[in-house]
Structures
1.
Amino acid sequence: MSAKTDDRLTRAWESFRKFMLSKDLRVTGQRRRILNAAFDLPDHFTAEDLLERARQLDESVSRATIYRSLPLLYESGIIREVDVGHESKFYAVNRRSENFKAQVICVDCDKIFEVDAPFMEWYGKTVSENLDLDVKTQRLQVHAECPEYREKFQCPKDS
Ligand SMILES: [Zn+2]
């Protein structure tokens, strides 16, 4: 883990701790390790990925603890949900002040690419303001084919 990640993790923990205290929730070592696990994972992890990684750090972490902690991490702004219309939700750590992201999803291997799309944020805001509405959420999803798919009609699959 780089010094930079370490620093972000410290700040994330500090804001998560404050969030929990403000909600009268217990600040536990398990929650700290779940946060660490989220920072260890590449973007677009599932609850099960988080469980697996958290258990490597602390084998007492249960599935129920993960499912109770995810909404807290989400509400406190530490992570965001990346809903690509699959059965299982994906999550990603908010690593810096993030631009609006559009998701491009491969039709074959389901790999998710995220690209900055700040104009989308502007567009959503503009069209809503014209209707005198406030934007709550918006998303842009593009379904596409990986380069490998175009060549071989099949993507390399994990495992
Ligand atoms: Zn693919």
2.
Amino acid sequence: MAQSTPTTRERGTHEVEENCAEAGGPLSSFIGCTKNRGHPQFIPVYEFSADHVRPYMPGEQQKGVDRMVEIVKVLAEFVVRISAPVVSDQRPDTWEDGRPYPFVDRRGRRTNKVGSGYVTCVTRLCGKSVVGICRRGSCPRGTAEENECWKIQVATARHVVYDDSEARECELVLFDDRPDGSDSVTLTGGWSVESADTEKDMCVLELYTHDKVLGRRLENIWSRRRAALWTFSKREFYLWWTEMFRQLLQDDRLSQLLQDDRFSQLLQDDRIPLLLFNNTFSRYISHRLSLLLYYTVCHDDSDLTVVISHPHGRMKYITLGQVDSERPSGRQDNCFTYTAATCPGSSGGLVIPLRFWLLSARVTTHCFSLSVNCGLSGGEHSFC
Ligand SMILES: [Zn+2]
Ligand SMILES: [Zn+2]
């Protein structure tokens, strides 16, 4: 559990790997980690199994545990390593609270900084209007592929990639899940910043590519992720959520917290679990309300939280922990804390609070370490 409660003045330590001399490969080849010596908590994606999840879900049927494993593995496919060698001269001196901003001492210089990120959106575009949109100078002119491209969006922490000048020179590596790096795909050049927020520590990168194999592969993962979410929401979790919402209605804390009439009307609707993934409902879940709901639901410290990242810039690893049900005091945004292990290189990685994901299909970004056993997320949640 967290030894201390973060406040606006306490962000902890960022988890960018500052000097990544060698990317990829297993953590066993990394020597000198003082935070998680030997890295016993870090599980390669291909070894991840029900045995890892079971201790966090003692009452769950085997089928439910197996599905959790399947979901985590699908979402893991979206996680990327980001090498961002440039440090923008536009990085601010300090955070809003006056503490120094990461890498401020190296503005305008090059480093070997490496973090993590995850794909949040894949969109296929086609027609005459996409010709030249990729801005990569490598359009397959005069071929059928010229009229078809994919827009890929990737979320990370802003302290990993600050602005366009950093994004342009980023190298993103997808599917680096194995010790020999077989199957990995590298996307260098052409990245730009779609949106960013310093205090929420969020940055969304985007890239247009004509790579049909990659585009279709990502679309396929997206479909499998959607199918996994629907399976859960429609079967085992339908009754569970309906009951949960009924209980929430009787919870005084919730009625005090949720003053929004539209929201309480929705809560009284038995069809809520099926509305969760509907655009209408998404509009009602403002970030503030969704987090209040989250903390009300996860009041027993038992929610499994999964972090997937590239610690020390090595291959992809999964760590498990629990969400800290106490909301970080003094923070007005949507950050929260968890016990899953992280190391330098995990900044920008995918944080999945599983119950919250099942409720809202939203995830967030790993940003800071408050202590060895306490990670702090960013203040923004994205669909994934
Ligand atoms: Zn480490
Ligand atoms: Zn093009």
